[in-house]
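re: ur msg from earlier - yeah i can do the adenosine-5'-diphosphate complex, just paste it... oh wait u already did. ok heres what im feeding in:
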Amino acid sequence: MIKAENIYKYFGDLEVLKGIDLHIKEKEVVAIVGPSGSGKTTLLQILGTLDKPAKNKNEELIINQERVLEQQDKSISRFRNTHIGFIFQFHQLLPEFTALENVCIPAYIQKRTKKDAEENAKKLLEFLGLDHRMDHKPNALSGGEQQRVAVARALINNPSVVFADEPSGNLDSASAKKLHELFFQLRDEFGHTFVIVTHNEELAEMADRVLVMKDGKLTSK
Ligand code: ADP
Ligand code: MG
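and the outut:
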């Protein structure tokens, strides 16, 4: 599903990733833990095709059998919109739009019709227990609800893999627990693969596999 090899990343003199090799199977839920500043977000951005690794002749990133590092920016964007979903610590919903509209945006980028997008978005919001909240704007929703809307937005184009960067970092423990359980429900129901950066030990313990980022390298726990 995901194969990353020889991933290096520098910011000026700072060597953040020092040769990451990572293989993730379909339908796996993998947690990445590690100290703040150790490069977890940097790695997730590279795996999610939002950033590029340093060139070193041997770097490789294959997602869904596609060698993404060789592609042009335009085709990477298309690939990302179709195959990858993102969930961030701060939901990053657009405040002027309702929950339903926020969820539909990635579908519109993919030029799906309004009818198709809305039908799909409503189904997802129902699955996430938000059917009575669809017409609310983000500031009328609780933190947990906002984050579940962000989950629906990540899933609207039925991506094969979802990258989440401290998704419960901003939630109270009850909402966090609900969100974590949701990830596994979604994996079981729809077969998504999840790569989740987290400081939450409960979530890490639930994961199929925990990887630790330390000194620019990943090791299994
Ligand atoms: P984590 O997510 O594990 O907390 P990050 O991947 O955000 O760590 O950051 C790793 C290191 O790289 C940190 O020292 C951070 O300051 C640095 N860093 C991250 N992004 C940039 C950037 N765009 N420019 C310069 N330094 C950066
Ligand atoms: Mg981070």
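cool cool. The domain at 2-220 is CATH 3.40.50.300 (Rossmann fold). ping me if u need the other ligands too
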